[in-house]
Amino acid sequence: MIYKKKILIIGGTGFIGYHLARKCLKKGWKVTSISSNRPKKIRYLNKVNYIICDITNKSQLKKKIKQSFDYIVNLGGYVDHSNKKKTYKSHYEGCKNLTKIFLKNPPSSFVQIGSSLEYGDKNSPQKEKIKCNFKSIKSVYGKAKLLSSLHVINLFKKNNFPSTVLRLYQVYGPKQEINRFLPITIEGCLKNKKFPCSQGNQLRDFTYVDDVAAAIIKSIKSKNARGQIFNIGSGKPRKIKNVIERVKKISKGGHPQYGAFKQRKFEVPILYPDVKKAKKKINWKTSMPFEKGLKITINSFR
User: Fold this and answer.
1) Strand 238-239 vs strand 203-204: parallel, antiparallel, or unpaired?
2) What span, in angstroms and rounded, lies between the C-alpha atoms of 279 and 289?
3) What is the Cα–Cα distance from 43 to 190, expressed in whole angstroms?
């Protein structure tokens, strides 16, 4: 009998979690998801074992997790960052609760999903060796993510806990929530309506969701990833205004209201990663061309 690898995805009902779970099922792995809510109909997968649990509740988490796993990926956390208390608790305390539970019986890989916001105001292209300055991070989300990264890397150093941190940049693709930049833009253009946006002078890095799922699986499998932090992005920044205009052209509609949103004081104008380390250590780089990924995403919203 062939042993099936078992993976636990915290946040398996979310946008990235869904695409990762799909990829893992295709590999024949047993997939378990932990989320605070049931999956939306468009992101429900038949063979996934869905567990409903709040990861900030340690005693509840202990009761719900009754088995060991080969791999654990922490994509969990409160998505509405305006609720600062919930954001901090779900991203940082949730991460600590998970590691405490699995410290005695660790998986072969624990992947903590981090964020580009952990770098604060550091200049791009941002490298993993940069020492992050906690005070320069303006958002509670960014601070909670950095604390989580430091926590799991420290566990690797002290307890040889198999931690890896992946710092994601702008992830896009089918089935993403409408409350993100690209889905808002796509919806506005497909419906040929007016929608507010900034002047669009910011530079951002975009990565297709399947490439992100591939990076997670590569880091799970590679021993070179243990105790390491990797930037996950294309390394090719794009001007936001150019991206909006491209969506507009492909969608054949839309009336972006440039300047309707003022740029936030804490927003970093140029944000993109140096991705050499991921290529060297885990043999990963993006494979989806932006133009093609954008067309697939726009068609999925039709």
Assistant:
1) antiparallel
2) 17
3) 22
**Chain segment 217-237, per-residue pLDDT in tens:** 999 999 999 999 999 999 999
CA–CA distance from 47 to each of 29, 40, 108, 155 (Å)? 10, 15, 23, 32
As for how many domains the chain has, the answer is 2
| Whether residues 98 and 193 fall in one domain | no
Which residue, among 92, 229, 101, has the nearest Cα to 157 in the 3D structure?
229
CATH number of 253's domain? 3.90.25.10
Q: How confident is the model at residue 262 (pLDDT cuts 50, 70, 90)?
A: confident
- The CATH number for 64's domain is 3.40.50.720
Q: Token match 């636990």: residue? A: 8
As a residue count, the chain comes to 302
Q: Which helix (H) or strand (E) holds 247?
A: helix 240-251
Residue 1 falls within a domain, yes or no?
no
pLDDT for 1 equals 54
Residue 300 burial (CB count, 10 A)? 13
What contacts 20, CB < 8 A, 6 or more positions away?
9, 12, 73, 75, 212, 213, 216, 217
Residue 139 inside a domain? The answer is yes
The partner residues of 74 in beta bridges, in order of sequence, read: 10, 112
187, burial (CB in 10 Å: exposed 0-12, middle 13-18, buried 19+):
middle
Distances (CA, A) of 171 to 162, 193, 293: 25, 24, 11
User: Does 255 share its domain with 217?
Assistant: no
Q: Are residues 230 and 240 in the same domain?
A: no
C-alpha distance across the termini of the chain, in Å = 44
Boundaries of domain holding 150: 6-170+207-235+272-282
Q: Do 104 and 179 share a domain, yes or no? A: no
Distance set, CA 204 to CA 171, 273, 285 (Å): 11, 9, 17
The answer to whether residues 75 and 147 belong to one domain is yes
Whether residue 107 has pLDDT greater than 80: yes
